[in-house]
Amino acid sequence: MTVIMDGKKISAELQDGLKRKVSEAAEDIRVVTLGFHETPSFLYKRRKKLADKLGIVYDYHLISPADSHEIMTAFSQNQKISGLVLDGEIPDSLDEFSLRLAMAPDKDMEGFHPINQGKLLLGEKGLVPPTPLAAIALLKAYDIPINGKHVVVFGRGKVVGKPLIPLLLKENATVTVLHSRSKEPEKIASQADIVISAVGKPRFINGDYIKEGAVVVDIGMSTDESGNLSGDVDSDAVMGKAGYLSLVKGGISPLGLTMFMKQIVDQYK
Ligand SMILES: NC(=O)C1=CN([C@@H]2O[C@H](COP(=O)(O)OP(=O)(O)OC[C@H]3O[C@@H](n4cnc5c(N)ncnc54)[C@H](OP(=O)(O)O)[C@@H]3O)[C@@H](O)[C@H]2O)C=CC1
Ligand SMILES: Nc1nc(=O)c2c([nH]1)NC[C@@H]1CN(c3ccc(C(=O)N[C@@H](CCC(=O)O)C(=O)O)cc3)C=[N+]21
């Protein structure tokens, strides 16, 4: 039997606590999204919807390459702003690394600031990329042991796969990372107790990749040949074989959005 892990339910429980904390905070919790495009991204809209629900003030501020550093510095110093995010594509003309350096590390909602990335590697407390954090939180919510387990991560992207490595090591997992150049992925993945996939290739993980009873967390998002949202995992093939399965819908996405808000709200005691 395969237990479907319900990220939506876990996030609803966390959101109740967050809502209370926001309402008890002495002042407004204010997050500013900086974007280079007239129309905010899809992700901004998802985050805005959740912020409204939690009572967090969440705004979009249009910037241009010419004024981006100045605005980032000003918002970083502004005591009334708790969180900052960069939205959408960053123009090629701009040095993204140096723009990220201008953000106050303690307002960095996505955990991309080099200080936060360094802290993550060193095991120091800092703001962590929320999607991989959600993967750890989901395993813990289902009392799935990580300590001493073999975890195979598909993907080494900066949003999910790479930050998962230090997070899993902190939990004492044995970590194997597979990427586009890895050989014999089925052979390696089928030895894992836990498989977490963050690639973005429709349904490539079939039953051959999964050990009987293993835990499977699907994070990768893509559109398949019919134009539908697809995960990395062929859920029909894995269903019945996996012990636990987090599907691309109702799994990590809602929990990732919640963790995104949680880290900033938790700074308010
Ligand atoms: N569910 C959610 O809420 C969220 C989902 N996502 C999704 O997670 C995925 C990962 O995002 P991100 O971290 O930015 O990673 P990237 O999209 O930057 O990179 C994808 C990674 O997958 C690897 N890869 C490609 N083909 C294979 C393969 N056949 N086997 C193993 N690995 C492969 C690439 O390898 P190489 O490095 O060799 O090129 C690369 O490391 C995306 O699909 C994204 O949409 C992201 C955030 C939130
Ligand atoms: N730096 C970065 N961070 C991200 O978090 C990130 C990213 N890049 N690139 C693209 C993906 C995609 N992604 C989604 C999140 C929520 C829903 C979503 O639809 N959420 C639904 C729930 C859907 C469900 O039930 O799973 C909701 O909030 O109601 C979709 C997609 C984040 N991503």
UniProtKB/TrEMBL annotation:
InterPro entries: Aminoacid_DH-like_N_sf, NAD(P)-bd_dom_sf, THF_DH/CycHdrlase, THF_DH/CycHdrlase_NAD-bd_dom. GO terms for cellular component: cytosol. It catalyses: (6R)-5,10-methenyltetrahydrofolate + H2O = (6R)-10-formyltetrahydrofolate + H(+); (6R)-5,10-methylene-5,6,7,8-tetrahydrofolate + NADP(+) = (6R)-5,10-methenyltetrahydrofolate + NADPH. Residues 129-268 form the Tetrahydrofolate dehydrogenase/cyclohydrolase NAD(P)-binding domain. The keyword Protein biosynthesis does not apply. Its EC number is 1.5.1.5, 3.5.4.9. Signal peptide: none annotated. It holds the Pfam family THF_DHG_CYH_C. One of its GO terms (molecular function) is methenyltetrahydrofolate cyclohydrolase activity. It comes from the Bacteria. Keywords: Amino-acid biosynthesis, Histidine biosynthesis, Hydrolase, Methionine biosynthesis, Multifunctional enzyme, NADP, One-carbon metabolism, Oxidoreductase, Purine biosynthesis. The keyword Amino-acid biosynthesis applies. Pathway: One-carbon metabolism; tetrahydrofolate interconversion. One of its GO terms (biological process) is methionine biosynthetic process. Catalyzes the oxidation of 5,10-methylenetetrahydrofolate to 5,10-methenyltetrahydrofolate and then the hydrolysis of 5,10-methenyltetrahydrofolate to 10-formyltetrahydrofolate. This is Bifunctional protein FolD. The gene is folD.
